[in-house]
Specification:
Organism: Azospirillum oleiclasticum
Number of strands: 7
Protein name: Macrocin O-methyltransferase
Bound molecules: S-adenosylmethionine
Strand content: 15-25%
Largest sheet: 7 strands, mixed
Number of domains: 1
CATH architecture: 3-Layer(aba) Sandwich
Helix content: 40-55%
Distance between the termini: 35 Å
Structural class: alpha/beta
Shape: globular
Strand order of the largest sheet: 3-2-1-4-5-7-6
CATH superfamily: Vaccinia Virus protein VP39
CATH topology: Rossmann fold
Order of helices and strands: HEHEHHHHEHEHEHEE
CATH class: Alpha Beta
InterPro entries: SAM-dependent_MTases_sf, TylF_MeTrfase
Pfam family, one: TylF
């Protein structure tokens, strides 16, 4: 689903941060697992975190309904139109297919944790270790905010929070700004060079 340069820059960023900051890799919004596998592969190739765990959160039932007020009419209209580019049946994905894919990457099964369900019911129960890379790819305001509230505090200093939909959906950028303001966090929005992937670096509190 992700264009080439953006995919590569996500991976380069995860590689850079993952080499320097110990902790688990977490993706919220995995869909079929394209980025999930890239995150696993780059961490394994670096070889410096043999105990790193990978946590993947998704409903595997697609996106929840967009909220007209928070996500905007573009999001609501997109969701209503099955022929919209990138709609993919409302981003639904097959759980068994995803599980088989991530378990075929050569990582010990006990290091792979798939959390199936709505973020509102799952991310608050995260029981993994400190987080090195937190990748948010849940499109909407509530999906983004729920993950930030539950998981941002668990990101290690120097860890990255990658915000896939910052430029794509108003609800996502609003959630990031609201979260930072609500918690009076002075974190900056950083950008990669080619595809301008948006990310935050956690500073020590
Ligand atoms: C754009 S897709 C993710 C693409 C994926 N990261 C990739 O690399 O191809 C968005 C995903 O977020 C999931 N999602 C969004 N909001 C969610 C929520 N509140 N709870 C659970 N899953 C959610 C959807 O099920 C969907 O699979």
């Amino acid at each position: 689903m992700i264009p080439g340069n953006r995919y590569i820059e996500n991976i380069m960023l995860a590689d850079h941060v993952g080499r320097g900051v110990p902790g688990d890799f977490v993706e919220c919004g995995t869909w079929r697992g394209g980025m999930a596998c890239g995150l696993m592969a780059v961490s394994e190739a670096a070889g410096n975190a043999p105990d790193r765990r990978f946590h993947f959160f998704d409903s595997f039932e697609g996106l929840p309904p967009a909220d007209a007020e928070k996500d905007g009419t573009a999001a609501v209209d997109y969701q209503k139109d099955p022929d919209a580019p990138g709609h993919f049946n409302n981003c639904s994905a097959d759980y068994e297919g995803f599980a088989a894919l991530v378990h075929a990457q050569g990582v010990a099964p006990e290091r792979i944790h798939i959390h199936r369900g709505w973020f509102q019911d799952t991310v608050g129960h995260y029981a993994g270790g400190p987080i090195s890379v937190l990748r948010l790819d849940g499109d909407w305001y509530e999906s983004t905010m729920t993950c930030l509230e539950a998981l941002y505090p668990l990101v290690s200093p120097g860890g990255a929070i990658i915000i896939d939909d910052y430029d794509d959906w108003d609800g996502c950028s609003l959630a990031v700004h609201d979260y930072l303001s609500r918690h009076r966090l002075p974190a900056r929005i950083h950008r990669t060079v080619l595809s301008r992937v948006a990310f935050l670096i956690k500073v020590a509190e």
